[in-house]
Design a protein that fits this description.
Elements lengths: L10 E3 L4 E3 L14 E2 H17 L10 E7 L1 H13 L4 E5 L14 E6 L3 H16 L20 E2 L6 E2 L14
Antiparallel strand pairs: 1-2, 1-3, 4-6, 5-6, 7-8
Length: about 180
């Protein structure tokens, strides 16, 4: 959150970084539950204590675990998020790779201390939610599947009923 002075009774949206009157309980932009200034300060203090308790950079003696296997560019992006939270990281690969996809190797692994793994995974999950905006999607139709032998289908993306096509007429999702 940007550097702000929080009034105890006012309410704040941590997602949108907006301030609301004390009687408002939900963000008007994103719908998130609002926190009082007191709760925000307590949360920030708790987070600072967690970060200060972490050991930072890895050493050869640390017990490490792999938390992510992906392209070098994705691993480096996530690595920076973890370093910002004082979580020590190491990147290893099983072959030469320049990151352009021409040298082989491909995926690399991101390692953290075993004791930091749960915190690291929470950071990765929060990043995934933010990058994909998955929490803002309506998943009411996610269990529907396209069946080419059926005379009627329901689009799993938007819920539109349709037949005779492998493309949803409403949202354009293609099932071919």
């Amino acid at each position: 959150m940007k550097k702000m002075i929080f009034e105890k009774k006012m309410r704040y949206c941590l997602t949108c970084q907006d301030e609301y009157m004390p009687e408002i309980e939900q963000c008007g932009v994103c719908g998130a539950k609002l926190l009082t200034g007191e709760e925000v300060v307590a949360s920030q203090n708790s987070r600072a204590q967690q970060m200060n308790a972490r050991k930072g950079a890895l050493t050869d003696k640390d017990d490490v675990v792999t938390i992510l296997k992906a392209s070098i560019s994705e691993v480096r992006r996530i690595e920076q998020l973890l370093v910002n939270e004082n979580i020590g990281t190491s990147v290893i690969g099983d072959g030469p790779a320049c990151g352009k996809g021409c040298c082989g190797g491909g995926d690399v692994e991101l390692l953290v201390r075993r004791e930091d793994a749960q915190s690291a995974m929470q950071i990765i999950e929060q990043d995934f939610d933010k990058v994909t905006a998955i929490n803002s999607h309506n998943t009411a139709y996610a269990d529907y599947a396209f069946d080419s032998s059926s005379s009627a289908n329901i689009c799993p993306a938007c819920g539109t009923s349709f037949s005779g096509s492998a493309t949803c007429p409403d949202c354009g999702l293609c099932f071919a």
